[in-house]
Amino acid sequence: MAGEMVQFQSNGKQTEGYLAVPASGKGPGVIVIQEWWGLVPHIKRVADRFAEEGFVALAPDLYHGKTTKSPDEAGKLMMAMNIAETEKDLRGAISYLLNHPAVTSSKVGTVGFCMGGALSLYAATKNPQVGACVVFYGGHPNVKPELEKLEAPMLGLYAERDTFVTPEAARELERRLKELGKQVEIHIYKDADHAFFNDDRPEVYNREAAEDAWRRTIEFFRRHLQQKA
Q1: Which of 17, 110, 144, 218 is spaced 20 to 30 Å from 87 by Cα?
Q2: Which residues are catalytic?
């Protein structure tokens, strides 16, 4: 079933997001965080796929109505983001989900792609209401998560050929998190490129890696998102 655009409170104003609810009418909550293109159809389809797996998924519109297909414009939109304001939008989205009658989990999961992957980890370090964090090749030069504050387990999904978020950077993040005593799983997909999950981009989409990463993500959220008491 298709989702719908909703509004939620964020930083004293209304922010929009795309909400997908499973056919059962209830399930654990997951925040789906966009790539640098904005809240495009691909991200809405990812939210719909979570709903098909039994989750209540909300993809907040962090660009507030703007989307692009141009890499140059996407880079400008990403770099123009006010990270503190974006964190408040994510906090509002988390609060909205946890208070939604369809959500059965006591905490939410966060998952994001590229820019959104960095924000998934960032949101998890800022919000103890995040119970599981998934990062698909996450990177943003202005997003600096305070890793010592991370309470949720993290699943990181990266690509061997990625020159933006390199395998070396992924292993360094893993090392730092383990040093801090955090729960972390990192997988680096052989022969995969950055954005391997995006099936709207045939030049980088890798079906085998995408399907395995999706399976791991669903299992991870099912394992870690507990029912409300």
Answers
A1: 218
A2: 114, 162, 194
